[in-house]
Amino acid sequence: MGTRQQFIRGVLLLIILVPQSSVQISSTVPAIILFGDSTVDPGNNNAIPTLLKSNFDPYGRDFYGGKPTGRFCNGRLATDFISEALGLPPTVPAYLDPDYGIREFAAGVSFASAGTGLDNATSDILAVIPLWEEVAYFKEYIQRLKRYMGKAKAQRRLREAIYIVSIGTNDLLANYYTPGIHSRSPQFTIDQYQAFLISIADSFITEIYRLGARKISFSSLSLIGCLPMQRTINAANGGCFEERNNVAREFNLKLYQLAGSLRARLPGIKLVISDLYDYVQDILFNPSKYGFENVDRGCCSTGMFEMGFLCNAMDPFTCPDANTFVFWDASHPSEKMNYLLAMKSLNSALAQFLS
Question: Is 182 a catalytic residue?
């Protein structure tokens, strides 16, 4: 094990004793670039006409200055902590945030949109930014970056940046398993739909590779059946929706197969699957080990089904200390959980980019 990886592992031993502390790894990573859904969206949805927003209290109550930024969390996202640990700014800005420009975006930028998916039909459900449009913004960003620092330096930065892609949960939970005009369930069996999503992931990764991306981390699905909202839907049977957790595991296996295929086809690509399924499972089934007291509902409101506008400052039930909760609302991790996920990612998948 390399010295840097040993350091990261040592940091993990401290995170329970010193939650959400600032850690920094000696790194030459010049930028972090994000694609995906709410897990990596710091506020792009603020700029589009969608109902899926979180730029109001109590979201962001533990963020700098207690500011609701559009992050679906009480504080920072996992990718904010990753950015800080790499010696980059402590938050990654949203590309559509008018308060930031190419100077800030050169070190980190997110094109992600809460509620989106690999499938265009998923983004149509709540009128959010589809993945193809995230790529269009990336192309625009590349041209801005070249004008800002010159073509050669921009191309080098694009090659050396770390790309984190977190997407897919909404395709299953908001699309396939939710009846509606955009649902794909009448068209596909679950196996067929997973194959369809994998084909889109293949095209997406190939496209950003063509545009200059080399160090790419694609997040696997977690225990989607254990989200508080899914527990609420499955209340009659009690506990997690194990069928949906099994689907997530099957999808993750297909992601690993895709990664192997892409590494064989795309010279110089460094593609890893960031798989935190087992780690999250351990947290959910041994919460006290990580300092948590609640795993089955979110801190905000009743925590059983609320997110977005249903999680608001007028609700009297929101918990006083989100650090005791794995989830902030019915679908999204608390800041403390995001911190743990960030440190685990740095110690596993992302460590391959730091050696």
Answer: no
Q: Which of 80, 222, 332, 345 is catalytic?
A: 332
203 is catalytic: no
* Superfamily name with CATH number, domain 3-12+24-353: SGNH hydrolase (3.40.50.1110)
Share of the chain above pLDDT 70, in %: 92
Q: In whole angstroms, how large is the CA radius of gyration of the chain? A: 19
Choose among 295, 259, 289: nearest CA to 274: 259
Active-site residue identified among 38, 83, 222, 274: 38
Q: Would the pTM count as exceeding 0.85?
A: yes
Q: Would you call 301 a catalytic residue per the annotation?
A: no
Query: pLDDT tens for residues 119-153?
Result: 999 999 999 999 999 999 999 999 999 999 999 99
Q: Check 301, 329, 331, 348 and give the catalytic one.
A: 329
pLDDT at 15: 42
Give the residue from 217, 214, 162, 218 showing the smallest Cα distance to 25.
162
Query: Structural domain boundaries of the chain?
Result: 3-12+24-353
Q: How many residues does the chain have?
A: 355
